[in-house]
Design a protein that fits this description.
Helix content: 10-25%
Structural class: alpha+beta
Distance between the termini: 24 Å
Order of helices and strands: EHHEEEEHEEEHH
Shape: globular
Number of helices: 5
Largest sheet: 8 strands, mixed
Length: about 160
């Protein structure tokens, strides 16, 4: 059990990640539209001529040795998508980063759809890591400076 940094009360079990099964634009389609327009996999998706990969954006949790992981989707250029697909079973951790755009609404943050990020591919057993790049966005700041355990707790109680 974790304790609140302000009042010392138990704040319950803490979950250190949240993930999304699909990009929001695919999630919002009707079942018929999904069938006709989208190809969906647990790590890769295509919607018409748009390409998405699943990854994790980690936010360090201050005062702990944990990070909070947002398992989100990024829309990426077609060329980067297919390079990743062709080398999916390999260690891609030394490949150069490439750009993408957040494809999910992230609760507790404003204006996340289309937020710029960089994608760092991982090994054959790791999902890509996402790094927010907009210096004016709170997620970029928190990815660099960390978040409180109380904020992590608020994520798990946030029903949106």
């Amino acid at each position: 059990m974790a304790k609140c940094g302000c009042c010392g009360k138990d704040i319950g079990e803490i979950v250190f990640d949240k993930s999304y099964k699909m990009p929001d634009d695919i999630w919002n389609l009707s079942p018929i539209e999904k069938e006709e327009r989208a190809q969906i996999d647990s790590d890769l998706c295509r919607l018409d001529n748009r390409y998405f990969i699943r990854g994790v954006a980690y936010l360090p949790v201050n005062g702990t040795d944990h990070c909070y992981g947002w398992g989100i989707w990024a829309e990426v250029p077609q060329e980067d998508f297919f390079n990743y697909l062709e080398n999916y079973e390999e260690d891609n951790s030394t490949k150069p980063k490439f750009s993408g755009l957040v494809a999910n609404v992230i609760p507790s943050y404003e204006n996340t759809i289309g937020l710029k990020l960089m994608v760092q591919l991982g090994s054959e057993t790791q999902r890509p890591e996402f790094y927010f790049t907009d210096p004016m966005h709170l997620l970029t700041k928190e990815q660099a400076e960390g978040i409180s355990i109380e904020k992590v707790h608020s994520f798990s109680s946030n029903k949106s």
